[in-house]
Each structure stands twice: as structure tokens, then as C-alpha cells.
Amino acid sequence: MENKTLTILKQYWGYDTFRPLQEEVINSVLDGRDTLALLPTGGGKSICFQVPSLLQAGICIVISPLVALMKDQVENLRKKGIESVAIFSGMSPREVDIALDNCIYGRIKFLYLAPERLYSDLVRERLRYMKVNLFAIDEAHCISQWGYDFRPPYLQLAKLRELHPSVPFLALTATATPEVVEDIQDKLGFVDRQVFRMSFRRENLAYMALKEEDKMGRMLRMIHKLGGSGVVYVRNRRETQEVAQYLVNHGVSADFYHAGLDNQTRSQKQDAWMDNRIRVIVATNAFGMGIDKSDVRFVLHLDLPDSLEAYYQEAGRAGRDGKKAFPVLMYQQSDRDKLWENFEASFPEISYIQQVYHHLGNYYQIAYGAGKGVSFDFDIVDFCKRYQLDILPSMSALKFLERDGWLTVSEAVFIPSRFKFEISYQELYKFQVQAAKYDPLIKLILRHYGGVFDYYVPLNEFEFAKKLKTSYTAVTELLLGLQKLQVASYLPKTDAPQLEFLQPRVDYKNLFIDAPFRAERKRVKETQIKAIYAYLDTKRCRSIALQAYFGEDEQTACGACDLCLLRQHQEKLEEKLMVEIKNSLLQSAKTVKELVDDLTMGDDETRLYVIRLLLDKEKICLEGDLYRWNAPF
User: Fold this and answer.
1) Which InterPro entries match (predicted)?
2) Closest Cα partner for 442 from 478, 476, 466?
3) Which one of 95, 489, 556, 620 has the largest count of C-beta atoms within 10 Å of its C-beta?
4) CA–CA distances in Å: residue 480 to residues 436, 467, 490
């Protein structure tokens, strides 16, 4: 089997060997075992399910919460000649229907599903008829309520086991505490608990956590000193622009990135950074998933992350080429206070959650008893502004509404316009003769797209406008006209998050919210915030502290983090002070004040500490008020 897996790896990815643990995970899956793999960011998790699925008949179902990453992987697989498809929120029922049919009757090898699609009876029923060879669960920590990024739709994954009891699960994540590792296996119903994990130690990373009042100045000095490319993470969109502009003003090639930018702009900025046309990208945590740039020399955090799991993932984007790199976290006391305030705001009262639900029903004008299965573009800023709500507790309220099965909210992702003819070729020809104004557009679509009678195709209205020498508005009006005449289906592009109601609307007073679950999540989150504080305040090695959090018993200091460097500096200073004390006392005995005043290195506290150390070791002795040298050195 080893030769076959390597053949597939070489054929489609061009690699001669696997990365660490990939082969072991693949073999476990091929043996039909439920498997959990903890691989670091950039460790090649996708290979672990793509290779074994290609070796077997049937289709691999991939569950991922990251729609943008799903779309990238589907595109990359198609470029390799591997038939793949993705289904996520924002697609029409007809699109979903066609995609699922192709998975049952076509040659699709990979079906990527956003977890919220598993709420759909249609999707689950169609999955039953597919010849599935593997269920791959990406970002598997999302299924655990003890995880840092719990996603309620992930609880639907247990239903996959009911559809195909004998098909193995491969759960993949970069970060999980021992408690989360157990919970993932419990929630997915693992029969055979097969866990592969790489150490969380990254030998080439010099972690630093610096209390710094002048963050901008320190950031600039570090960027100039370290060289190479890097990422600066901040908390909000406004900061990305301000910090990027500050760097540009000080001669650093920089740009900003956040989820509020349109898809084309995000791609342009990302590509410029990947190609080293931009040296520094200043971003929110929306940046980085699925990006594998090897020569990142620094990842700077100007705001405290919400958890050590999130920090480890973001910091791990540095130094993937194995060379020395610097993840640096800068903070002030106000940052610690703000983190706690955000934590408190993230757990609104039950009555607040009920009010958010009530306002959503009014916002979308949904009648009581109606709305099940209906989805909408969702602008949370506009929603909160209209009902004078704070954004953070409102976002948290949506999470609890998701958990209890009332609705689901997908991430913001760009979905291009889609088009499909709903009549036969012969009927379309008759229509073209009768409706001449549509003829040029129809001919253009037929020239550019095969299969447009069978499935939805993405189209670009701007390109059509250019070729037809007309306006964007005129093209969209023609497309909408074809839809109105039931000649075609036209779904305009969107880059908004999608909100879908899973149940008919009820009176908010009768809305059930799981209060014990809310209390448990609050306890978990409080533990994660306190872990951040403990990491900042630790006196031991940063790498050891991170590994301990993830359940690794490591005793060897990294020798490269800020605390190790400080300790090394202190040890060298103490050695020099010992030599200086010896030379001073060999000249003459001295009182403690005379001895301290005679020394040139360190502060008084350090000098007294070394004097006590030498006294304990009996290298010096005290006779009356005078210290004398007592031993050969």
C-alpha cells in the first residue's frame, strides 16, 4: 500500500515523500479506523484525507466551517483533474439539488459541506445514497463545547454515522487540549480511539510576550531589525488601516486586510504579500487560514487573542521554512482589562438572547409560524444599528440561538453570480427568435459555458457588459428578465454572511434557550481567558508554558524566548558579579555597603542577591560586619 500512496502523492502533488505523521494517518484511515490527527498549522492536513480517498472507490465527504478555504480546495483539486464540489449557505435549493445528484450519479470524488448544511433533510437523505469512503472533519475542535471555537452546527455530525455506520471518520485539527481530544472522539462516536499527534514544540520559533507602552514604536523597531516578511494581527478593521498607514509613513511596505473587503480586493492584497510585493500585512484574524507562506520571519500581535489556541495557530504562521522566526505578543494593562470586558459581554442574559431573536423576526418580516428553511443575506451592523443593540453581545446571542437549533449563520464569503437555463435547447432557440433583445446575451452565454442547461455556472456581469458594449445595469436587467420569463434561473452575487431560520418563528417568550449550556460555556471561556493571563505572567519558558497548556510534559527550555534570554542574561550577569565580588574582597574585607558600592554591574537588588548566593555556598564569610573571601575560585 505504501507504494500506492506515494504514487498518488507524486502524481497529483509532485512530492516524493510525506510530511511527518501524514503516512501514519493515511494508513490508519485505509485500515478503516476512526482517526484523530493533531497536526500543526501548515502540516498538510488535507493530504491526509485526499490521498486515501483517491485510492478507494467512492466519494469523500469533507466537513469544514471555512467556506473560503473549501472553495480554494475545490478549485485546486479541479486544477489537478480531480472532480470536486462544495455546498454551503447562500446556494439556492436548485443548485444544491444538482450538486448532490452529481455526487450520486457523477464522478465526484470530494464533496465539501459547510456543517450547517447537515440541518437539511434533503442533504442528509441524498448522502444516504452516495458511496462514501471517508468522512473527513476539518477544524474538528469546533465540535467540542470545551474548545475555543465551538460551532453548534458541528453537533449534527453524529447523524453522518447513522447514514453510513461502517465508514471511518478522520478528524483533523491543529490545536486541542487533552479535554477537547477526548470530547472530539466522544461526540463523533469513535469506535477505535486512534490518535496521532505531533509535539506542539516549534524549535525555530522564539516566542515573546512583552509589556509595552509604546507598541507602535516597538513594532517598527522589530520590523526593521528582523527583516523578511510578516503579519501584524490587530483586533478590529479600523486598526488594520491605521497600523498599515503608520508603517507606510515610516518606510515599510505594508497593506491591510479584513473580512469587510470584497473578494477581489482580498485576493489582490493576499497575492501581493505572498509574492513579496508587500512586506507586511496588517490583519484581523480573518487572515491566514489555508495560507502557506514559508518565509514569514515575524508574527506580531498588537492585541491580546481570545485564547491560547487561537494565538498558537496565528503565531504558527511564522517560520514554516524551519528558519528562526519571532511570534511576538505586545500588551498593556488596558489590554488585559479589555479582554475581560469582552468576555463579560460575550455572555448576554437569556432575556437579551430572546430579544435578539424577536428583532430578527421583525427585521426580516417573518410571520409567526413561518420562516423555516428561509435564508437571507445578513448585515449585523445594520441589524444592530436599527434596534440599537451592541454588536458583541448580539453576535454571542446568535451563537446561543444556533446551539439550540433556531437558526444558523454562515461566515461572510463571496459567492459569484450563477446562471442556468431552465428550458431545453430547442425551446431556447424559439425564444431567441421571438425575443430579439435577449439574443446577443444568450449567444454569449452559450459560447462561454458548456453544461449551462444541466447545472449552474458562475458568470461575471462586468465581462458580459464589456463584450456586449453595454452597461452592467443593462446586463443584470436582461438576466433578471430571463428569470422573470422562467427561461433561466439567475442568482446575483453576494459577499454577505447568510442567516437561515431552522424553525418556524415562535413568540420570543416561548423561545427555549439552554441556560445550563450557557453557564458551562461561560466557565470554559473564563478558563481560556485566565490561561492567557497565566501565559503573560509565567516566569518559565514560553514554549514550555504553551506545551503544558496542550497537555505536553516538557521540561527543556527553548533557550530562545524572551524569558529564556532574560534568564541567560541574568545568569551571565551573576557570573560577572561573582568575579567582581571576588576581586573586591581579595583586595580587602568590606562591609555590605562598601562591597555593594564597589561593584559596577547590575542594580543593588541583583548585587545583594549574588552576595547572599556566595554566602550560602560558603564562598565568602561574614566576620562581624565585614565580608571576606573564603575559598579558591
Assistant:
1) DEAD/DEAH_box_helicase_dom, DNA_helicase_ATP-dep_RecQ, Helicase_ATP-bd, Helicase_C-like, P-loop_NTPase, RecQ_Zn-bd, WH-like_DNA-bd_sf
2) 478
3) 620
4) 16, 19, 7
C-alpha cell of residue 279: 512586506
pTM of the model: 0.78
Sequence-ordered strand ranges (E) for 275-377: 280-283, 296-301, 326-331, 375-377
Q: Do 287 and 349 share a structural domain?
A: no
Contact 442, 428 (CB under 8 A): yes
- Report whether 351 contacts 343 (CB < 8 A): no
Does one domain contain both 365 and 427?
no
Q: Is 153 helix (H, G, I), strand (E, B) or coil?
A: helix
User: Average pLDDT of the chain?
Assistant: 90
Shared domain for 46 and 139, answered yes or no, is yes
Helices (H), 81-214: 93-105, 121-128, 158-163, 178-187
Q: Are residues 162 and 294 in the same domain?
A: no
Whether residue 491 is predicted with pLDDT greater than 90 in this model: the reply is: no
Is 23 part of a structural domain of the chain? yes
Which sign, positive or negative, has the C-alpha torsion 311, 317, 322, 327?
negative
**Domain range enclosing 394:** 341-413+496-513
Strands 194-197 and 296-301: unpaired
Distance between CA 468 and CA 475 in Å, rounded? 9
Mean pLDDT of 484-510: 88
* 409 shares a domain with 301: no
Burial of residue 592, with CB atoms counted within 10 A of its CB: 0-12 exposed, 13-18 middle, 19 or more buried: middle
Distance CA 38, CA 197 (A): 5
Per-residue confidence (pLDDT) for residue 259, from 0 to 100: 76
Domain count along the chain:
5
CATH number (domain holding residue 103): 3.40.50.300
Q: How far is CA 257 from CA 74, 132, 235, in A?
A: 23, 38, 12
